[in-house]
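Feature request, filed as a ticket because there's no other form

It would be nice if the structure record came with a short human-readable summary line next to the tokens. Right now we just get the raw output. Example of a typical job, pasted below so the devs can see what we mean:
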Amino acid sequence: MNLKNIIASGAVFIIIICLVWTSQLTSIETREGLLISIILAIASGAFSWIISSHYSKASLKAENTKLIDRIGEQSSEKILNQSKQLYSIEQYLDDKQEKLASEESSSFGMIYLESTRNMIRIIRSANNTFLSDWAGVVSEDIRKQLTEQSNAQSQLFEDIDLITHSTPEKREKLEEQIEQNSQKLPSHLIPKSNLKGNNAKIISHEITLDGTDKKTGKINVLLSEESYKGHSVAKFDTVFSKPPTKNNYKLVSSPTGQQNINVFAKTGTVHDFHIGIKSHEFNVPLAPGIYEIEYEFETE
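Raw output as currently delivered:
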């Protein structure tokens, strides 16, 4: 118990004693009344001073906490943004290194780029230390927010690096994880992937059979840029009587003549269906161009 608590407790005790003393007196003379008034005034003043001091410190602490939280948020945002920019430089150096390798250039240039990339990665990893410093002084809520954002961005860096060297099956899981972690960050702090997005677009749809229980046709999907996969949605001219349970599909032609490309045409509704193409080869994107796909849906 510190001195202020002792003074506050003593003041309360004296006030209670004076009140009890006053209530037991049948008559109060001038001298006794004056003494009691003086004691009460001193005790009340001491108690009021202790209480006001306590709330003043509490208010000051709350204001300081708000100020530290605000500065911590702003500084952490700058640190995360710097990490994103450094990662962009790493990706740029990776791209240059791949081009040098494809051109069979001098190995010294590739070693220089790799060394530079590693140094930038060390600098980026040091930002986690700065974030940990801020996490130690901000409030609990802000600490959780900073920790969640830092972990989400760090995981994004790892997943984006892994996705370029993953099989198509693992790539889908990584893409889902990237999407989940991206939702935990403001858009301007999300690192960008070098992978191409969904560039698929249906340019023609030839319907050969349009019944209520069976539908067949051909679809031409244009892939405008290199991508690991493409996806689009096509509509039926007329609806099914109920959602089809049987579906068949096959790739008729592709820009490079390859047939070992994963394609699908699936539906769970009566009015539209999904068309998709995916790279079957490890770390090899689909070539841009037109992909022709045949489909057949039928109800039981």
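Something like this underneath would help us a lot:
The mean pLDDT is 78.
The CA atoms of residues 128 and 293 lie 48 Å apart.
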